[in-house]
Amino acid sequence: MLFCSIWLGFFAYKHVAYSHELWWHFSFRGEASRFLRAAVGSGILLLLYALTRLLKPAAANPDLPDAVALEQAAQVLCAKGNAVANLAFLGDKSLLFSPEKDGFIMYGVEKKSWVSMGDPVAEPALARDLAWQFREMVEEHGGQTIFYEVGPELLHLYLDMGLALFKFGETARVDLAGFSMEGNRRGNMRTTLRKMEKEGCSFEVVAPDVVAELLPQLKEVSDSWLATKNVREKGFSLGCFDTNYLRHFPVALVRQGDGIVAFVNLWPGSGKQEIAIDLMRYRPDSPNGIMDYLFTELILWAKAQGYDYFDLGMAPLSGLENRPFAPLWHKVGAFIYNQGEHFYNFEGLRSYKAKFDPLWEPRYIACPGGLSFPQVLLNIAALTSGGMKGIIGR
Known about the structure:
Radius of gyration: 28 Å
């Protein structure tokens, strides 16, 4: 375009004799002089733009993990992984391993945002070096370092890295040692268990090696649930119905007669410190209270297996204070939490999990602060929803 405009300029003003004075001639009708100055100015701007594009960091194109990388991640998870780290098997996040392959960070890239899903999966001493390794890699590509849904244990590390902290919500963890079905508070749960048993429902947990033969039935349950809820599969921070992904985990089932009416896959942590739920699906025509029955039986099963905590998952925007001196993000988040029921059942989700008397632990986003935070949230939403189209559609 610049070449064509210069050619047209020389063609239009070929009748004007060139002289050095043309560069400094200013008048309302001095088109030839204006053309010369504009051509040089446009050429300089184009050159600067080209140099900027040439010298900026290379575009990010991290590879997704192959079978070897997933096997290495599985070894780390068996030794020191928390329950959420099982998201590595989803395969939609790249993996950054420590030099000795005894720790990793799982991350995704959306525009300039490099988002680590959770804290580094490693021992605390190694997690510090791994986080800095991730930060240095992001800086080489000119990106923004972000740690998403991190717990309180490593907040000092993210502050040392120059990142700002924003509370994103709370996760519900049931202390299994203190959980009991006795007392008036558990009356509704006992009633639900008896009701489901009378309707012919039964509960069981199947091992990962048995899941493969059940996948066709599980897919029918999942498809009917998606169609009824009119939603699409998510990713990044949540599991989705993927046969290769589900083969890695035990699955809790509710059967009614010969058919499966509800299921949830489980994320076991190392050393039986915790176990968490991921994909929750049930048939639309299943008995009322089926998920209460499933969760109650799951908690009792996890306690019998010797786990310390049962993680019910996140309650987004929960625990944000809308007070006069609270940070602006807390006020905005609390407003969305209270008024955004049309888009997401924030209060209902927290109330449902609260019936199991969990311990509420905060979760944070560590990222660059200031005016970049809204863009960070948008990029995270794109990662979890499968792109910008997934943010707009359900």
